[in-house]
Fold each of these.
Amino acid sequence: MKKLLSSFLFLTLIQVCFGQSELVSIQRYLQEHASVWNLKAADFANLELVSSASSKASDAKHVKVRQTKNGISIVDGFGIVTLRDKEVIHVTTNFVSVSEPTNHPTLSAAGAVNASLKHLDLTAADLRQIQNKNNSFLFSKEGISKEDIPVKLVLGQHNGQLMYLWDLSIYPLNSEHWWSMRLNAETGEVIFQNDWISHCSAEHCSGENHRAAQAMMVPPPPPGTDQYKVYALPNISPAHGDRVMVVNPSDATFSPFGWHDTDGIAGDEYTITRGNNVYASDDIDNDDVPGYSPDGGVALNFDFAYDSLVGVQGNLDAVITNLFYMNNMMHDIWAHYGFDEESGNFQEMNYSGSAFGQDQVMADAQDGSGTNNANFGTPPDGMNPRMQMYLWTESNVPDLLTINSPAIISGSYSCSTAGFGPPVPNIPITEDMVLVIDDGTDTTDACGLITNGAALAGKIALVRRGSCTFSEKVIACQNFGALAVIVMNNTGTSTQAMGGGTGAETIPAIMVSKPNGDAFVNQLNQGIAVNGTIVNPGDLTATDSDFDNMIIAHEYGHGISNRLIGGGDDTDCLWNAEQMGEGWSDWFGLMITQVASDQGTDGRGVGTYVTNEPNNGGGIRPAPYSTDFAINDYTYGNTNSNALSQPHGIGFVWATILWDLNWALIDEYGFDPNVKTGTGGNNKAMNLVIEGLKLTACGPGFVDGRDGILAADQILYGGANKCLIWKVFAKRGVGFSADQGDSDDRNDQVEAFDLPVECTLGLSENKAAVHVQVYPNPSNGKMTVKNTVSGIERVELVDLSGKTVYAKTIENSSKEVVLDISNLNKGLYLMKIQTSNGLETIRMEKF
């Protein structure tokens, strides 16, 4: 109830802050430029202001507007409009053509919930409505969901037609998924389903959000003396360094009342690992109710010893303290780059009074729902996200598998285990292996329709790692009666722990390396029976992801990307096949664990600690992250291959490009170890990526992500790094002519390694516009050229052939010039701006 009230107050606040004049200005601009997006002016006849997000450019603001029809919001018809001095300078569009709805909303809200439950194979004991206001309903979670079930009547596109839909979310009691769904409001057909949990509620203690603005009127307390013994950043894990004591690490700007505050008034509300940004506790019993949290006492002294004799499960104080520390650090660091209150970050109280609040991270240590995994569930702003961190079993465990025959390959083999289904049993499973055959592209990965299913009954199934999930492989084999599954890695010479799972797995699964798997297949292809024994030789528990700062950062990163793309009110933008969420998350972890001695050509693995690899190991991705093509030669074209998994493999290629971008900027501007407010190339990369997320289209592909970063550079740095950015992306195949095709089709990407014309005209890169701003860009008429530091003396436009097609000399130079380019042909141009400080260049477009 409080959260829905907060939503109403937030919408009112947005309308007050921007007012009708700004909405009219945005509407006029969109109607004048409607043809750019193959739309009509009438499609923008009725707009609503939804939310705003801050920009690192102090004079800019990102405003989300949504189309409406008949007073109903069009859920997928929206855009992010960037304003500078109340002028539109950029539009990230997901706008749609508005027509008459093709159906009628005859299905009730309760009927929509019941249809959703049936679709999910869930049943409701008693569906109880607890709120009904303006076509928005709330149903009790009791016996159905971990959270109350919000239901709202909206309009949306389906098969090119506008129709009435019921939009709702259900968080099933097993916590495996958090479903966002849309149903035909007439038939109950499910037409959209997205899982808010990205794999690898608690009470609310603060008041309603409208109190927050008053809280900041109370001065924050002086610096605290709270202290935490943790693996302090940039340390990654126990394998990379020792725990140290950090004192008063909270950020004075973004956690001004410390990490244990929840009301914005000096004085800590909690002495346990709970505060405004995160509530960290154990969830060993897997009930999603906060369990044990270490207590630092009045002095907030979280100095806990670690007893190596009892392992991670016997050291909850140390483990949870590290989890609490890392969540708070992620909050504080990325707020400096734009993941702040206005942009939908995670806080119980928003001190500024903007956005929703009431959504600290619920961080579960040693979650009992699985192993070899971690996940993060991101609902919209105003609802608590949940981070679940798991124990990891050993990788490359000797004696899990013994080949009994034939003699040529007999002996013990090192394997890794699955983080789902039953554990490897103590009672041996001894049987012949059967290589799975299916009708898919890779005929042995169990991702297609299995054609030799009858042969699997009572046997050990042998499958190749491939395009579908580990869980899907195991379930496919168990459905034909297999006793266990051996997954053969499809790359490298090692194994990895297998994560994921749905709760439907009933047989154990292990992984062998590619060379060992190839040896097994070679024998089977010769018609020779291969007999093996699978057995647990002892306790397989090895490590805890609560001690792996890279994995914690990765999971938190899902919350950042989900909240920033499309705005904090909508976390349904990273649902499509080519989406890069896993890549952004890897990159977040890489960025905050850099040190001055690192080199771009180094190999950086992810998850080496939890998988018991050496620090220079390859980790859990297809290759280490490196600018060196001898170590990582992946390009955009590789995302078409089913050899790369979806979404992790696709995300890996995206993170590879972003890591290259980081190092290109470091080469240009140097490295700054000040991860929050430094000015080095790494800091510029962090600015560009966070700002770029706010400018990236919903349902993005790589080209959308690239264009978001280019737009961010234009807004933040006047396009100073444009050609550097283009060269980085072109090197990995996302060049000027790259085509992402349908971003929901992972097999239609076309890579290209070319550059735009302005980056190939022989102009030195230091001539790219630094102080000049041009808006609107693109334009079909008048456009403003503004220089922030000196006068403009002359402006020329050069077409793609190098011909000057427009020139204007400004007598008595001015800092601001208005050009009329209505007579120019449509296309791209290079604008040369001669200022009193020298020549600057920028790309502009006439449409």
Note: The two ends are 47 Å apart (CA to CA).
Amino acid sequence: MSRKKHKPWYLFVSLAVLLTSTELFAQEVTGTLGSASATTTIPGKQLPAPAPPFGGVIKENAMQSKPWWAPRIVPPKEAPNILLIMTDDAGFGVPSTFGGVIPTPTMDRLAKNGLRFNRVFSTALCSPTRAALITGRNHHSVGFGVIAEQATGFPGYDSVIPKSKATIGRILRDNGYATSWFGKNHNTPTYEASQAGPFTQWPTGLGFDYFYGFVGGDANQWGPNLFRNTTQIYPFEQHQGTLKMDRSDPKAETWPVTGEESDWNMITAMADDAIDWMTRIHQSDPSQPIFMHYTPGCSHAPHHPTKEWVEKIEAMHLFDDGYEKLRERIFENQKRLGVIPPGLKLTPWPKDLLTPWDELPPEAQKLFIRQANVFAAYVAYNDYEMGRVIQAFDDLGKLDNTIIIYQNGDNGTSAEGGPVGTFSEVCFFNGVGTTIEQQMKYYDAWGTEFTYNHMSAGWSWAFDTPFDWFKQNASRLGGTSQNMVISWPQGIQDKGGLREQFVHVIDYVPTILEVTGIAAPEYVDGIKQDPIEGTSFAYAFDKANADAPSQHTTQYFEMMGQYAMYHEGWFLSTKVNRAPWQAFSAANPDPLNNQVFQLYNLNKDWNQTEDIAANHPEKVKELRAKFLEEAKKYQVLPLNASVGARVAAERPSLTAGRDTLVYTRAMTGLPQGDAPFLLDTSYTISADITVPKQGAEGMIVTSGGRFAGYGFYLLKGKPVFLWNLLDLQRLKWEGPDALAPGRHILEFDFQYDGSGVGTMAFNSFAGIGQGGVGTLTVDGKVVATQRMEKTIPIILQWEESFDIGSDTITGVNDDDYHPPFPLTAQFNKLTIKIDRPQLSQEEIEKLTEGLKKLEAGRE
């Protein structure tokens, strides 16, 4: 049932004011206009609403004058509260509500009291889906053709939401809602994520009055880069556990873990903060409706549940018989629940891509079961905590008139751990795989603060049942087909109903506007607004429309050169030519045309099992032309199939173009997007410090953390420079003696061997991640020198910052120190000089020629 717009009614309204104020004409006004308690709705075509003319009387003194207050802006009468939930990296077969084996009782309960939607689509990747969801526009339309960390200098890919496309938060806030955003914010450009701002692309700058969460693609849930509004906070520092991992024996099969985990976890903390916020709003003004955007980091890597939840899931033995059996079990559950069409068949298991379970060695099976148990515990734990937030709405008496939208996943399940998984996803983002043997060392630590863990892609394939492929794959439904439940006791009467209409994430904004009776603005801050591109699906709320045709009939999909075109049930898709973990392979040079095209009729073939392109060449041609038409319309061009190269590409930064950086005071929290970039280059770090009489220790400068980064510090008075190479190796330069009291100049110089090429221009990674020689000097005297055979090629641990004078979140070497490890010497100055390799014309010509040969080989 969709809300009808209310007819205007007035109490004690000044006719003179109405005649002179178009903003107050035809609106709902309560109380005596001009009194301090009066409220009004607004037409909403212009935001913020212009102030009405003063309606009182002004004489020479106050005794003869009459005060007049502008009415407070409120939403239409009985406008519902809105809780918009979206989880992360979760495919169709994850939640129990849609046949999964992982218990999600909160989602189950909402489905029982509301509606299930089984045809909900994402963009196949995090930032793009999230930008589309909050704006009601396609992801390229709002600058998010890819994630923020891959932004390039084209309108569809610059990671900047235009001012002409206001978010649902801004619209609802200016119409009287209290607005908030909890959890993951992956829609701030990497080069605007520092405390230097600007903050216009942060949640608080996009219309959300309150933000509690992390900025970026993922976060350590035991110690995230956490912000309240735009201020970084560290509440977890007061809740440290006693966990220790003994890495002293490099030959040990598993490194033992002892102690108690922290009693702080982001999943619980954000639920607590959300409950606190809504209670605060309710107690301040019980009549004000709430809009809460709730986006936990679960189930994106790292998978960080509490030990309690891991033990609960392990006791259920859900995964002991492997991922193919899991897939079959989920499929049978889906048929039993009726959430997939009858007669559906599964696509075959990709034996050439993923090793069948029975062919795995016992050690691999043991590890993979552990991976899946921790992932499932994470999902179940998150669902429970979201249930607490929903219960808080009920406790405040708000649940009856609250729309709860709970979307499972912003894309399909992630396979970025690769076929065998990884103890650290930071390795994946640097193109480095990890072996079973390496991962087994972290077996006991899996899911704790000592891992940045991801599971085998075999589980990911199963969790996307009944579809195939994964997150990143925009042409296969395993990458884009989500599911969702909506509960609204006051507005939805068909309890437990199933809806199969086509819904895309761009459809949420127009749906919310329709049910609240709030208009899409024509101008925001004086800027003409572009049309909303989504289609309301509020019509599907009525039981009479349960089987109504979909009103969203055309939708393109594109992600990193793979694309699809949906139109009235037909689905043209490009054949997958790259697995998600093959992010550093050579890219398709002509992704628009150099493709194998597949065609499906989703009205008959719900999960892409039968390619009928050969039988309908005219339909293939028609949909190819339609995709190009949509691509031109929504800023999809130029198409680009590169993945890892885009991470390495240049983009704005506070340090871009600077080869000398000087710091004279301690500071922390500078994010990687604006930090000095010391990868694939020669550099010198010079620290000017004064050691007191009693000696000194502590961090001078660090960037990154436990899973990748460097640190320059004093350890028991001795100078140390350390590179943590993806937690696979920790290479240390250390002076032999403690520094004597007094002033010292400490210097670490690194001479890099490679060319530093890792850009889209050459689509080449040949010159990155190379070795070099590092030299540590004290007051001009060499105290340590050694060679690094390889260096980190692409990125440090991105959610860990560049810090001077202390270390935040995690340290680069647990064996030496624990954060914050403040510097007890006097800090005078830090100078960083960067000598980035410059290619000669001859080298450029060789690289260009090599690229041409590579492309010719692909063709």
Note: Residues 847 and 853 are 10 Å apart (CA to CA).
